[in-house]
Amino acid sequence: MTEPIINEREQKHAAELMKAKVPIREWWFKDNALLTFAFNTSSATVPEGERFIVRAVGEAAKRVKDEHLKKEAETLMHEELAHARMHDAYNNYLDSIGLPANKHCAETKKLLDFFERRMTLKMRLVTCTIIEHFTATYSKQILDIGILEGEDTDERMDRVWSWHCIEEVEHRATAIDLYRAIGGGYFTRLTVGAWVSIAFAIAHARCLIDFLAAKKLLWNFNIWSKGIGYLLGRRGVYALVLKYWFSYFKPGFHPNDIPIENRLKKQLHHYHIEDELVGYFR
Fold first, then answer.
1. CB-based burial of residue 227 (10 Å sphere; 0-12 exposed, 13-18 middle, 19+ buried)?
2. 141-157 tens-digit pLDDT
């Protein structure tokens, strides 16, 4: 069965860049260092976060009888492992241009290993729901607002993040549905969710600062003045994530309460384009 791909025009342009051996620009997002770092920082935490989710979801799926939910868990695990593989390549690319992505990936693994040793399955699933909520709200901006669109963004990186976000949106409710299916309640979701949110916000901020420092840009006023609006402005990346973040803590919250319109009509080539995307980073 032939499956749709993410925008044939984008795929063709990305292939042309690869054929011409055009390197990915260091500031591939609108030639803006701060905006580029915001995405690159997110990649540093992805591989181990995805593997953590796969382990917790796999364990939880064995405890439920709902065959539809089991199937959704299987889809999530398949997609998350593909994301981890692609972001491993992405992080190796970041290391090659002088950004310590794998250092922060290793630190994320230590944090998540600590969670696995200390947390019950329900608490680990709450951690999964927080990660999935963050990626879903991030994805909303890419699919609904189109922040990656435009000639001044490298087409390959647009495809990398669009593919990832489409799949995240597809399975955004699976972890919380599993959590409820095994008897998870509001109090655990509230307390563990808040604590994990703080831990990951600190980890993300440390990585962003480290990346800026690696390029001697941490105290560069020009970099901050050009990029801060895109991060913290009224429609900034972090501002919109924060807006939707608080909705997670409502007692009856469900990820599908936040609509994803996919206004740009991005299409999904289900599972199978990670080989192409990994190739962008060779």
1. buried
2. 888 877 787 778 999 99
Paired tokens of 193: 């969710």
Closest to 177 in 3D by CA, of 50, 68, 69, 77: 69
DSSP state, residue 150: S
Residue boundaries of the structural domains of the chain: 8-279
Percent of the chain with pLDDT over 70: 94
With a cut of 70, say whether residue 232 has pLDDT above it: yes
Beta carbons within 10 angstroms of residue 268's beta carbon: 18
Instruction: Quote the distance between the C-alpha of residue 159 and its chain's center.
Output: 13
Task: Provide the b/e sequence for 69-96 (b: ≥16 CB within 10 Å).
Answer: bbebbebbbebbbbbbbbbbbbbebbee
Assess whether pLDDT exceeds 80 at residue 16: yes
Alpha-helix residue ranges (DSSP H) falling in the chain = 8-19, 33-61, 67-96, 101-118, 121-140, 155-170, 174-181, 186-214, 221-232, 237-245, 274-279
Do 39 and 29 touch, CB atoms closer than 8 A? yes
- Alpha carbons within 13 angstroms on the beta-carbon side of residue 133 total 29
Report the alpha-carbon angle 44-131-267, nearest 5: 85
Mean pLDDT of 68-80: 95
**Vertex 93: Cα angle to 88 and 94 (nearest 5):** 95
